[in-house]
Amino acid sequence: MRLTPDQFLNYFEWLFDPKGLLQGFFLVLILAILGFLVGFVIAMLKHGPGEGFLQVAKIIRELFVVDIPKTSFRRVAAIAKLAIKEAIRKKVLVVVAVFVVAIMFAGWYLDPKADNPARLYISFVLSATNYMVLLLGLFLSCFSLPSDIKSKIIYTIVTKPVRPTEIFFGRVLGFTAVGTIIIVLLAAMSYLFVVRGLDHTHEAKEISGDGTSGVSTLQRFHSHTFTLNENGEGSTNETKGHRHLVTKDGDKIVFSKPVDDLTARVPIYGTMRFTGRDGEDGTGFNVGYMSEYQRYIEGDTLSSAIWSFKGVSPASFPTELNYDMTISAFRTYKGDIVTPVGGVVIFRSSDGLVESERIPFKVKEFLIDQRSISTKLKGFRKGQPTELDFFQDIAPDGKFDLVIRCQDRGQYLGMAAGDVYLRAKTLPFWWNFVKGYISIWLQMVIVICFGVMFSTFLSGPVAIIATISFLVLGFFGSFIDQIVAGKIEGGGPIEALIRIPMQSGSGVQLDIGNPVLENVIHVADQGLLMGVQTLKSAIPDFTQLGTADFVAYGVNLFDGLLARHLTICFGYFLMTSIISYFFLKTREMAA
Amino acid sequence: MSTSTASASPSGTSTDPTNVIVETRNLGKIYRDFWGRKKVNALKALDIEVRKGEIFGLLGPNGSGKSTTIKLMLGLLFPTSGRAFVFGKDATDVSKNERIGYLPEESYLYKFLNAEETLDFYGRLFDMPADVRRERTEQLIQMVGLQRARRRQLKEYSKGMTRRIGLAQALINEPDFLVLDEPTTGLDPIGTREMKDLILRLRDQGKTILLCSHQLADVQDVCDRVAILHQGELKELGRVDSLLKVQDVTEIHVKGLDDKTKQEIKDVISRSNGELLQMDNPTTTMEQLFLDIVRESDQRPGRRGGGA
C-alpha cells in the first residue's frame, strides 16, 4: 500500500491548498469560456452573430433565473422513481445474481497459500464490486435517455413542464438509488464471504513439557507456535496475517477465531525528511529502481530517515507506544542471505536533547512490522544514560522525532513517508469495510454523472464509448502524465503508431530516414499529448478515488480522505449537470 | 384553391388577441443534415392562429408539414425562421406546458408501467400533490374505460387501449389547450365515436383543441376551422362549414313525399331553369350503421339484426 504525499493533507488543507484552488479556478474558467465559445459558434452558425450571442446569453440567464429556482423536487423524484422502476423491471438486479455466482466459485481461484489471505479476500471482493458497479452505472446511465429519445417517449416528457435540470437530476438520482441498492446487497454478501471465508481455528499438536508453549495443527496451509502465561492465557505467533488467542481449559488448549486479520488501524502520520551520510539534510538515495516511491538510507553511516510527529498524547498511548513499519531492503552484496538487513529505531525529542536507546530491528520485507515500546524506557539526556518517561521527557508537547538508521555496512533500507506511522487505536473492521464501499459508491456516482451527461447529446452506444474513454483516462491518468512528461519511451500516439508497422522497439530513437518528418511527428505528438493532458485534468482520477488498499491492508480510511472524495464527486456532479443543461436546453428532441 | 393567411372568424369566437391561444408568425423549418446542408424545407412561412374555445384541424397529406407545425408549437423543434407563440409565450418556454395536454401520433409511453403508474408519473410532472393525482387518475381511468386493465403493464395493451391511456395522460392536468395528433388512429368505430364525442365535450367545456388527422370524416365531424397544408405551405384556412359549402347547389331534405309531389318538384325546378343533379333517398354512413347495430345488439343480446 502506497500513500502519496497529498493524501496526508487534512480536508481543509487540501480544500484550500493554493495550488489546487488555482488549478480548479483555471479549470472552471477554461470550461466556462470553452462552453460559451462552442455554444456561441453553434448559435452564430444558426442565427448569425448578434442573435447567436443573445441566444447563448438567454440560456445562461434562464439557468440561473428560471430553471434552477423553479426546479421541482417532486418532478425530480418522479423521474428518479421512474428510473428505479425501469431498472428493476428490466431485471438489473441480475447483477447481484452474477456476483453471487462469482463469489461462490471465488475459492477456486483465490490462492489459499497466500501470505495474507485476508488481504487477498478483501481485495477480491472490493475489486469485483468496484468493476461490476462501475459497469452497471455505465450501462444504466448511457442508454436510458437515448432510448427515450429514440422511442419518442421523450415527447411526452418535455411537453410537460419539465426542466432540463430536472431531467438530469432525476436520472442521476434514480440510477444512483439503483446502484446504492445493489452496492448494499453486494457489500453484505462480500462481508459474509470475507468473514466466513477466513474463519478457522486450530488445535494443539505439540505441547512443551511445562505446558506453556507448543505448535498448532496445520489448517489452511499454515500452523502457529503459541505461548501461554501462568494463568493459562496466551497467543499464537502471527502467520498469514493473523494470530489466535489461546487459553487453557483444563487439559485442553483452545484456540480462538483469527484476530488482527480484519482490522482498521488508525494511523498517525508524521512528516518525513532524510539525512545524508554526513548527517546533514539530504534526500535519500535512489537505488535505481523504476519506482520513485521509496528513497533509501545507507547502512553504517549517519544517513537516516526522520519522521516528525505532533499532537501525540498519553490518551492515545497510555502504557505503550504502538508503531508500524513497512521497510524494504536493498543489498549491494549478497552476504548472509538468510539474515534480514538490520536497522535501529530511535525516539528523540524535537529539540534533540533527549533520546531513547537504539531499538534494533530486522527488516520484514513486504509485511507490516507491528511494533511497540513501553512509555517507560531507557535513554539519554544530553548524552547521559537515564530512565525516561516518553510523554514527560521525549514528547512533553506531543511532538517528537522517530529516527531510523540502517546498521549493516553496504546495505540500504528503503522507505517513504507513509511507511512508518503510530497506531493510535484500532476501529472495527466492518466500519472500514463500509467506508471502502462508500468510496466505490462515489466512483459510481461520478460514472453515472458522466454517462447521463454524454447521453444528453450522444446515442447510447456512442455515450458508452465516450464514458468508457473517460474511465480509461481516469484509471490510467498517471500513465498519461508519464507519457506527457516523456518518462515513457516510445513517443506519443503518432510515433507509436508508426513504430508498430516498422516493428521498431520503443527504446531506440525513431528513424524513418527523414529528420524533418521526424520533427513534425514529434511536434504533432506534443500537441496531441498536451490536449490529452488538458482533458485529463477535467477527468476524475479513479486510482486516487479507489481506497480498496486501505481496507485490505487494515488501515483506517481517514474521514478527511473520504470527505475529499465526496467533494470531488460533488464537483463532477456540478460540472456534468451544467454541461447536460446546455445540451438538453439546446437540443431539438424531435430532430 | 386560394392561399389565405387571413383567418375567418368562427361564430362564438373573436379576433381579440387575448383569445388567441396559438399564433405562428412566418414560421418556417428547414431540416438539415449533419453537415448543415439543406435536406427538406418542411414548413414555409406559416401564419395561423388558433383561438380560444375552438377545435382547429390541421390537414394535409404525408410530408405536408402538419407534424412539424405541431412539434414547433410544442417546442420539440426550433424554428429556422419566424416564431410560434402559445398562450402568448414563446413555444420554447417550458412554463407554457403547464396548460397544455399533448397526445402524440402514437402513444409514446413507458411500456413497463401500468395505467395507474403512468398517470401518477405524468401527474407528478405537473407537480400535483398525491391526493389530487389519485383523484384525477381515478377519474381519467373511468373516463377512458380502462378500469379492468388499470394494473396491467402497457406492453400488454392493444393499440386502442394504448390510445386511451395516451389520451388520459394528455388530460391529467386538465389542460386549457389540447394537441391531438391522429387521435382516432387505432380505435374501433365505437372508440372513434367516443373520442369525437369527448373532443366535442371538451370544446364545450371551454378547452381549445388542435387536431391533426388523416381521417377527413373525423375532421369534418368535429372541427370548427381547418388549415390545409401541402408541401409545407398553407393552402387553405377557414371555417369547415363555409369551406365545404357548395354555393350554387341547393340541398333539401324532405320526409314523407309521394311520387306525384316529387314529380311536381322536378317540374318546378325545370320551369325555373334549374338543373336537377340528384333526387334520391339518402344513405346513412357506415359508421352510423355500425353503431346502430352494436347498440341494438347491446340492448337485445343474442338476436341477429335485420338486414337486406
Structure commentary:
- The complex is a heterodimer of chains A (591) and B (308).
- By secondary structure, chain A is an alpha+beta fold.
- Chain A has 3 domains: 5-197 and 433-459 and 545-586, no CATH class; 204-264; 294-415, Jelly Rolls.
- In chain A, 48% of the residues lie in helices and 20% in strands.
- In chain A, the strands form 5 sheets. In chain A, strands 1-2-3-4-5-6 form a 6-stranded antiparallel β-sheet, with no helix packed on it. Chain A has a 6-stranded antiparallel β-sheet with strand order 9-8-11-20-14-16, with no helix packed on it. A 4-stranded antiparallel β-sheet of chain A has the order 7-22-12-17.
- The model of chain A has no long low-confidence stretch (mean pLDDT 87).
- Chain B has 2 domains: 17-244, Rossmann fold, CATH 3.40.50; 256-308, no CATH class.
- Chain B has 9 helices and 11 strands.
- In chain B, the strands form 2 sheets. Chain B has a 6-stranded mixed β-sheet with strand order 7-8-9-4-10-11, sandwiched between helices. In chain B, strands 1, 2, 3, 5 and 6 form a 5-stranded antiparallel β-sheet that branches.
- In chain B, helix 3 crosses helix 4.
- At the A-B interface, helix 4 and helix 8 of A face helix 2 of B.
Alpha carbon gyration radius of chain B = 23 Å
What is the CA-based Rg of chain A, rounded? 29 Å
Count of β-strands of chain B: 11
Tell me the CATH architecture of the largest domain in chain B.
Answer: 3-Layer(aba) Sandwich
Report helical residue fraction of chain B. 25-40%
Could you say how many structural domains of chain A there are in total? 3
Low-pLDDT sequence parts of chain B: 1-14
Q: Count helical runs of chain A.
A: 18
Q: Which protein chains are joined by the largest interface, and how many residues does each one contribute?
A: A-B, 31 and 30 residues
Summary of the model, kept short:
The complex is a heterodimer of chains A (591) and B (308). Chain A is of the alpha+beta class.
